[in-house]
Amino acid sequence: MSSAIAPQETTTPAVVVRARVFGESDKIVTFLTRDLGKVTGIAKGAKRSKRRFVNVLEPFTHVSLRLRQRPASDLAFISACELLDAPRSFTLDLQKFAYASYILELTDRMIRGREAGPETYELVRDALGLLERSAPEPGLLRGFELHLLGLTGYEPSLDRCRRCGTALAAVDAVYAQPARGGLLCARCRGDGRTYVISRATLERLTLLQRASFAAADARDFVLQPGVAAEARALLRSFFAAAVTFPLASEQLLDER
Ligand SMILES: [Zn+2]
């Protein structure tokens, strides 16, 4: 007798975001999928079964996931999971591991439910792919952050004053607001706590905002030390409304 696939079963490519053992033999795993956004599911017998889930339920792994969503539960049932690609360098290089962990943790924080579209899955997959084949450059994280902000509705304007809309290319100095994010012209900075952002950093971030991770080379993400520090602080302010830093993965992160 042939076993018919249940109608509510779906197969989608996905990246494993996190996994933990549940009970005696199961695993609860969160995926960023192409077709269903962020999904958490239970893999029955995953801790014991060498056959069904061998090495596929580890963070960073790129898989083809088959799951059955359950109407009454947020927890899907993972029917099968097939390995597409597993990055090898992250287990050998602590900085790459830290970068990759930060990428997944930040994504996990920014994507609340199943709202993520395929672009978010593609961004994470391509950023991890680039990290796998090249050196961990701080600019890679900044570029990733800019793209993630754009995909989650927080895209910062790097070329216009947030308050009055003046083109920042035409003003003498550009100011950042650490607590609220956003860039301001001198007229709009008021008496609030602001500081000057260098042109070099703004130009570099504008390029990173347009960079494609799929086509990129690690050299596209090299930052001068002064620019790197300024860009990191500025990006952090853009996340101020959505994320509280530091993230757990930053304990390992040693940004040059
Ligand atoms: Zn202004």
Beta-strand share of residues: 15-25%
Number of helices: 6
| CATH fold-level label of the largest domain | de novo design (two linked rop proteins)
Structural class: alpha+beta
How far is the first residue's CA from the last residue's CA?
61 Å
The chain-level mean pLDDT equals 90
**Please, what is the CATH homologous superfamily of the largest domain?**
Recombination protein O, C-terminal domain
The CATH class of the largest domain is Mainly Alpha
Gross geometry: elongated
Q: What does this molecule look like?
A:
The protein is of the alpha+beta class. The protein has two domains: 77 residues, OB fold (Dihydrolipoamide Acetyltransferase, E2P); 162 residues, de novo design (two linked rop proteins), CATH 1.20.1440.120. The strands form two sheets. A five-stranded mixed beta barrel has the order 1-2-3-5-4. A three-stranded antiparallel beta sheet has the order 7-6-8. β2 and β3 form a beta hairpin. α1 packs parallel to α3. The protein is elongated, with a radius of gyration of 21 Å. Zinc ion binds next to α4.
